Amino acid sequence: MRSAPGPRPYLEPLCKAHRKLIGKFRSSNSSLTNYLKRFALRHQETDFLSGTTLAILGIDDKKYIAGFFSLAPVSVDRTPAQKVESLQRLPRFPIPGILLAQLAVDERARGQGLGRYLFEEALGRALRVVQDGPLRARLFVADAVDEAAVRFYEHFGMTRLAEGFPARMVLDLKKIIDGS
Fold first, then answer.
1. For residue range 97-121, what is the model confidence (pLDDT) as tens digits?
2. Which pLDDT value is given to residue 3?
3. Partners of 140 in the β-ladder
4. What pLDDT shows up at residue 99?
5. Domains of the chain
6. What is the pLDDT, as a whole number, of residue 5?
7. Which runs of consecutive H residues, i.e. helices, occur in 8-113?
8. Within the chain, what is the greatest distance between any pair of CA atoms?
9. What is the DSSP code (8-state) at residue 52?
10. What parts of the chain have a pLDDT lower than 50?
11. Which of 10, 64, 117, 153 is catalytic?
12. What are phi and psi of 171, to 5 degrees?
């Protein structure tokens, strides 16, 4: 995966030791800030199939959460997924995927390529899970919260399945694994 062009963050799974840092996180999207502050740690401690990873910048008392992402298992209804040509011949069952449930960058770290870095890191982890097991999934999935998020995900080749927001978007992992 590529590194962020600005100062390189280090990645850590969210844990109780991050509580002081969580309160200082500010995203331009209040629902993402709210998720990190109110729900992420609880999900991390109780949901063994999903997890949140933090990107931390700075040292000692100057550390802050520059961004984060959460991954979780998901299934996608096959009917809207037919918009993706490579998925049209799959059996008529829900398609398993890995959901990029949350991806956010702190306002202090915007414009440094951190969103791209976090997306690529999340996608890389999803690919490792799919290739090495124990889960099998065909799709990398995101729910774009607005048009800017749609454009961001489209930049990585994701396809929008429906209008409105959140807009479900998918990327066929098999095409990446097969190199096609």
1. 999 999 999 999 988 899 999 999 9
2. 46
3. 98, 171
4. 95
5. 10-178 (3.40.630.30)
6. 53
7. 19-22, 30-35, 41-46, 78-81
8. 54
9. E
10. 1-4
11. 153
12. -135, 130
Token pair recorded at residue 52: 């949140």
Question: CA nearest 86: which of 163, 139, 152, 143?
Answer: 139
Q: Which long-range contacts (CB under 8 A, 24 or more apart) does 26-35 make?
A: 26/106, 26/107, 26/108, 27/104, 27/105, 27/106, 27/107, 28/107, 28/110, 29/104, 29/145, 29/146, 31/145, 32/102, 32/103, 32/104, 32/145, 33/104, 35/70, 35/102
The answer to whether 153 is a known catalytic residue is: yes
Neighbours of 145 (CB within 10 A): 17
Rounded CA separation 82/161 (Å)? 9
Instruction: Tally the residues of the chain.
Output: 180
How far apart, in whole angstroms, are the C-alpha atoms of residue 180 and residue 87? Answer: 14
Q: In angstroms, what CA-CA distances link 154 with 68, 95, 162? A: 20, 20, 13
- The span from the CA of 9 to the CA of 57, in Å, is 5
Report how far apart the first and last C-alpha atoms of the chain are (Å, whole number): 19
Q: In what order do the strands lie in the sheet with 51-57?
A: 10-13, 51-57, 64-76, 95-105, 139-144, 167-172, 159-160
Compute the distance between CA of residue 26 and CA of residue 109 in angstroms, rounded to an integer.
10
Dump pLDDT digits (tens) for 51-64: 899 999 986 678 89
